[in-house]
């Protein structure tokens, strides 16, 4: 019995050691499982990051493909225009200048031939009369494009070499420079661009390429804008330009008009007032003369304001004429030197 008990104790001790070893191995396995779980999470994070990179790359590639399609359209339009020019055997700029019956419109590097009116009749649409010639001045960077005509006069005469051409008609060389934009007056610039596209017969797919020749602050803005937005055509571009530049012009012009006062001569006051009227009407053409007349009279000097208001002018031109007349009347008075030296003090309200 004693030996059996000893063997049982030895077996129990061996079992305990085995269990301890098993527990130790299970703890080691738990630690390894924790490491595997951490590694799995790291791999999953890297896969998510890789998926984001692939998604961004896909979007970039899609944008590049769209731009390539737009460029392909532009190139096709250009090739079509060149093919038309080659098929019609259009003369060069130098040849057009040497042929008295030719008209050139320069600005896009393309020469267009435009028939002028006949010699015996008045040119339609206010064109040059027969016998006149045309010259081109260097463009003023602030003015965009300029059309300059010259010659022996609008009334007649051969006015140059070469005689008549195209049934007695005489054609004129006109060079049109593309209007530049520096961030000021975007609506005026937009209208100038549309006029240029129409005069030079620019294909709509080329409008954006031509219009993105910007200057100053506008050029810096567009450089940054292209990095954040995709501009695929003229409508998107001109909408972004008008949203960025000139958005507060209407309000600023109106505030300036409402606070404008005559501080010097009537001529200077009228010039500034009319400039603001033109700018405001460009944003909202529905203001009537009653508003502008009342505001014009309100800004006049006291000694001129009352006589002008008493005449109840109905138009702005009439009010300006009366202001000039009243200034001349005031200048003839003996005390005019003291009175017109500055703005007369306003009467104190009752």
Give a description of the structure:
It comes from Lolium multiflorum. InterPro entries: Retrotrans_gag_dom. This protein is mainly α and 350 residues long. It is 59% helix and 3% strand. It is built from 12 helices and 4 strands, in the order ααββββαααααααααα. Helix 10 packs across helix 11. 14% of the residues are buried. About 23% of the residues have low confidence.
SSE arrangement:
Elements (H helix, E strand, L loop, with lengths): L1 H87 L4 H6 L6 E2 L25 E3 L14 E3 L22 E2 L10 H15 L6 H5 L4 H13 L5 H11 L4 H10 L7 H18 L5 H11 L2 H9 L5 H16 L4 H4 L11
Parallel strand pairs: 1-4
Antiparallel strand pairs: 2-3
Helix pairs in contact: 7-8, 10-11
Q: What is the terminal-to-terminal distance?
A: 134 Å
Portion of residues within helices:
55-70%
Q: What's the Cα radius of gyration? A: 40 Å
Total helical segments: 12
What ranges have pLDDT less than 50 throughout 5 or more consecutive residues? 89-169
**How does the helix and strand content classify structurally?**
mainly alpha
Strand order of the largest sheet: 1-4
Give me the count of strands. Answer: 4
Describe the largest sheet.
Answer: 2 strands, parallel
What's the overall average pLDDT, rounded?
A: 73
Shape: elongated
Strand content: under 5%
Run of helices and strands? HHEEEEHHHHHHHHHH
């Amino acid at each position: 019995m004693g030996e059996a008990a000893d063997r049982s104790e030895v077996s129990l001790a061996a079992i305990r050691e085995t269990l301890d070893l098993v527990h130790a191995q299970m703890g080691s396995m738990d630690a390894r499982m924790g490491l595997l779980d951490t590694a799995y999470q790291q791999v999953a994070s890297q896969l998510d990051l890789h998926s984001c990179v692939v998604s961004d790359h896909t979007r970039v590639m899609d944008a590049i493909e769209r731009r390539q399609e737009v460029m392909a359209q532009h190139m096709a339009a250009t090739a079509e225009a060149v093919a038309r020019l080659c098929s019609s055997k259009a003369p060069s700029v130098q040849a057009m200048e040497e042929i008295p019956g030719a008209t050139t419109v320069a600005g896009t590097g393309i020469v267009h031939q435009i028939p002028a009116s006949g010699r015996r009749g008045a040119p339609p649409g206010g064109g040059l009369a027969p016998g006149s010639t045309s010259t081109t001045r260097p463009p003023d960077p602030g003015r965009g494009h300029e059309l300059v005509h010259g010659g022996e006069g609008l009334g007649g005469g051969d006015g140059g070499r070469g005689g008549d051409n195209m049934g007695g008609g005489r054609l004129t060389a006109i060079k049109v420079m593309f209007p530049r934009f520096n961030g000021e007056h975007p609506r005026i610039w937009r209208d100038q661009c549309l006029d240029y596209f129409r005069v030079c017969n620019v294909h709509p797919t080329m409008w954006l390429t031509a219009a993105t020749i910007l200057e100053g602050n506008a050029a810096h803005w567009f450089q940054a804008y292209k990095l954040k937005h995709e501009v695929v055509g003229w409508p998107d571009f001109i909408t972004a330009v008008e949203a960025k530049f000139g958005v507060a012009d209407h309000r600023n012009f109106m505030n300036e008009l409402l606070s404008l006062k005559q501080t010097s001569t009537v001529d200077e006051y009228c010039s500034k007032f009319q400039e603001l009227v033109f700018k405001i009407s460009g944003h909202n053409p529905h203001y009537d003369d009653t508003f502008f007349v009342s505001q014009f009279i309100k800004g006049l000097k006291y000694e001129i304001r009352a006589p002008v208001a008493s005449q109840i002018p109905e138009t702005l031109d009439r009010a300006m004429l009366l202001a000039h007349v009243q200034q001349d009347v005031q200048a003839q008075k003996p005390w005019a030197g003291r009175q017109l030296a500055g703005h007369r003090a306003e009467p104190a309200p009752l």
